Amino acid sequence: MTHLEHYDVIIIGAGPAGLQAAIHASRRKVSVLVLGKLHHSSAHKAHIENYCCIDGHHGTELLKQGKIKAEEYGARFLEEDVIEIVQKEDGFIVKTETEKLFHAKAIILAMGISRNRLGVKGEKEYVGKGVSYCVDCDAPLYRGEPVAVVGSGSAAVSGALTMLFYASEVYLICEKLDVSEYLAEKLKESAVHLLQGRKVVEIVGNEFVNGLVLDDGRRLAVKGVFIELGAKGAIELAATLGVALDPENMKYIATNKKQETNIPGVYAAGDICGPPFQVAKAVGEGCIAGLEAASYVKRR
């Protein structure tokens, strides 16, 4: 049986919002675990020039300093992507890409948003008609059909493995895998067809998707194309928890002024709560989420 580690607050995402949440929650003397990779943050390698008293700083340095400060207050960091969150009576079980399991009394979602699209011909035209950005949301729609998953990170690999339970055939297309050794080995042992070193250049179909074209000219006959670039994002993880999205465009997590979602014990901060996509907003929301999550844990 997998060992289960217990924390008061688990923060998913190591960008400005997640780091600030970790600092403020830790200062309230609750145990904090931050899951995520600093280099996945949109602030990584960015040039920070409009954030309060800081000007001309590199985003990488800002993130490193935030991590150091959070660790000084007792937060623990683990550079792994989260692939699943399950709600229990006494809190939440969080599963990472290497299948480590953690229990939390409160969760802060601060993993940012995916700004990545393939940008290939046919992608926009077939969204909702064979093109999907969420395996967890749409997998059952392709039961018994051949599908392709595009991406090199944990979201793509875990998505491809999930699709084996539904699809007749699963292809994973990527230039180069960027996952843990554990997840890479799990993929190798599976029935997923890994097409590494290849790119999708076009998604084709009639009314619905019926194939895609690779950069070597090969055409794969598939009925679904799942674009999963990077780590699992807000929509995928929120969907399994029943967290409400904003009713306008269903792209961001809905919160109140305390950064609370509709699920008790689940908070959100940063870009996943919507624009403006600025470090200042992310840090402010992270501060509130950290304080509120710590208070929630102490009340319980």
Keywords:
FAD/NAD(P)-binding domain, 2 domains, 7 helices, single chain, alpha/beta, 300 residues, 7-stranded mixed β-sheet, 17 strands, 5-stranded parallel β-sheet
Task: Characterize the structure shown.
- The two termini are 28 Å apart.
- The radius of gyration is 19 Å and the shape is globular.
- With 300 residues, the protein is of the alpha/beta class.
- The protein folds into two domains: 178 residues, FAD/NAD(P)-binding domain (3-Layer(bba) Sandwich), CATH 3.50.50.60; 97 residues, 3-Layer(bba) Sandwich (FAD/NAD(P)-binding domain).
- The model has no long low-confidence stretch (mean pLDDT 90).
- Strand 14 and strand 15 form a beta hairpin.
- Helix 1 packs parallel to helix 2 and helix 1 packs parallel to helix 7.
- It is 26% helix and 27% strand.
SSE order and pairing:
Layout: E1 4-12, H1 16-27, E2 32-35, E3 47-48, E4 57-58, H2 59-72, E5 76-78, E6 82-88, E7 91-96, E8 101-109, E9 131-132, H3 135-138, E10 146-150, H4 154-163, E11 169-174, H5 181-188, E12 193-196, E13 200-205, E14 209-214, E15 219-220, E16 224-227, H6 234-241, E17 266-268, H7 279-299
Parallel strand pairs: 1-2, 1-8, 2-5, 8-17, 9-16, 10-11, 10-16, 11-12
Antiparallel strand pairs: 3-4, 6-7, 7-8, 13-14, 14-15
Helix pairs in contact: 1-2, 1-7
